[in-house]
Amino acid sequence: MRFSRFFLPTLKETPAEAEVISHKLMLRAGMIRKLAAGIYSYLPLGLRVLRKVEAIVREEMNKAGAQEVVLPMVQPAELWQESGRWEFYGKELLRFKDRHARDCCLGPTHEEVITDLVRREVRSYRDMPLNLYQIQTKFRDEIRPRFGLMRGREFVMKDGYSFDVDEKASGKTYLAMYAAYQNVFRRLGLQFRAVEADTGSIGGSFSHEFMVLAETGEDTIVSCTGCDYAANIEKAEVVWSEKGQIKSNTPSRPMEKVATPGRRTVEEVTTFMGIPPQQLVKTLIFLVDGQPVAVLVRGDHEVNEIKLKNLLQAREIALADEALIRRITGAPVGYSGPVGLPVKIVADQAIQGMYDCVAGANEEGHHLVHVDAGRDIHADLYGDIRSVTAGDRCPRCKQPIRLSRGIEVGHIFRLGTKYSEALKATYLDGEGQERYMVMGCYGIGVSRIVAAAIEQGHDESGIIFPVAIAPFDVLLLPVNVNDTVIREAAEDIYHEFLSRGVHVLLDDRDERAGIKFKDADLTGIPFRITIGTKFTKEGLLEIKVRGTGETLFVTREQLVQTLLNMHSERIPRCLQQG
Ligand code: ATP
Ligand code: MG
């Protein structure tokens, strides 16, 4: 490709709309442009990267025995009503009517469509295992689309679905997909980690998320310093021990109400009373499927809404608003407490042993002291409903844990018979018995990967792409195209690379060298070959490695071999083929 003909509108200034670095750099490097909130056009440079990611995903899926299909993006409501998700999915599902006033939606995911396809075609155990995938645009009407391709409303996903005869076979498929995902992310050249993930209403530890490690990630990863346990914080289990609890040998004193005027937050109350946050019972009022529930955690802990939702087997939970809190507790926000509260009370397991502690008095400007959980708190249910903190221990080996951040780029899930039962996807086994197919689903955020790769690979000058997904392998940069020797050398090298299948961008613009170097750094192409005065005087070409900044000088004859020796996923392969 010739730069002079390439649609590559780079920007000097960072557009104000972008907050995170990948979004800024993708706009500046002319990879994407915004059409509407969370909806982007891919320009040629961006599309080349996206296609390279797709190609690796496709190769690994095919290698693992999955077959590619393309399923419709527009889906009839009836299928979603059959699975129950027309109601359940909420506002992320973009619904509309066609000209015959039939309800439809844009596919945010394809469990319904694939299960419908397979139930019509597959009859016998002999037709399984069956593993189908697609790489396609999804639409989710995200409440807060942001960070460019990271959380779009329209985005590209690889979604795969497997059908097996029983749980055992499905588990085997799951493991094969897990391994394929490891291969995908390794080949993409990303630092990543597979973590245990929440399985929601299905249960079991049969879900893993693949996280690209990056400070800017939206997800918190919990990993053990001693063993290989790693989990999303949504899921990471708390090992509860009585250690760290405030205990006293003196017998319980009677509860007492004290004035805490204007003190509402944990910090304000504990400072005012001169107690550590571990000695405070934090009471939050939630609406759980429309019913008010009081949720208790220790002052130094945070409620984990996913755990709470799972424990209560709820469809929807949300914090109550100020008006409801007043109605239930008789006091404004900040003074809620469990004693005498006329609603269901759910408490974190750490509340159980709390002794001589402080809680809201359900009266404005007042708290209770000397609260003894065993005596004064009558919880309907105790459970693990808080998030792990840095001070917690590994649930497997009890070693200290570490918290870090990541971007979820893949998610694999054992579905069991959730969809096959809802949509009656059955087969006949060897004995002629009708059985439900056992399913799995496997997603990869293809467009999110492009953003994640840039979050992980960049410096102040621009993008540093992993070689495997760079838009071009090599940027050929003649510093002055009006110099005949330089221009001809550039053309000669350009054609050799093209004929060998190297993805090369020739910066043939009649521009100042400084501008060309800036664009070279910005676009993140792994190898830059500069043809300048060193070439006209000494016959030397400069190779600069974008990732390390390393430069070396070679003759025209040494060029190809030197690139070959610079270990990289793609370049040696395509040069060797030539
Ligand atoms: P998230 O928690 O980030 O919303 P999810 O759990 O809804 O993700 P899945 O339904 O498992 O995501 O989708 C599979 C993959 O698709 C995710 O792992 C992620 O990489 C990608 N993905 C999901 N939502 C978006 C989005 N709005 N924009 C870009 N990629 C997305
Ligand atoms: Mg989501």
Description:
The chain is α+β, with helices and mostly antiparallel strands and 578 residues long. Helices cover 28% and strands 28% of the residues. It contains 17 helices and 31 strands. The strands form eight sheets. Strands 3, 7, 8, 9, 10, 11, 12, 21 and 24 form a nine-stranded mixed sheet that branches. A hairpin with a 2-residue loop joins strand 25 (458-459) and strand 26. Helix 2 packs across helix 12 (446-456) and helix 16 (559-565) crosses helix 17. It is globular, with a radius of gyration of 29 Å. The protein starts with 20 loop residues before the first helix and ends with a helix. The structure holds adenosine-5'-triphosphate (ATP) and magnesium ion. Adenosine-5'-triphosphate (ATP) binds at residues 109, 140, 142, 151-152, 155, 157, 408-411, 443, 445, 447-448. Residues 109, 140, 142, 151-152, 155, 157, 408-411, 443, 445, 447-448 line the site of adenosine-5'-triphosphate.
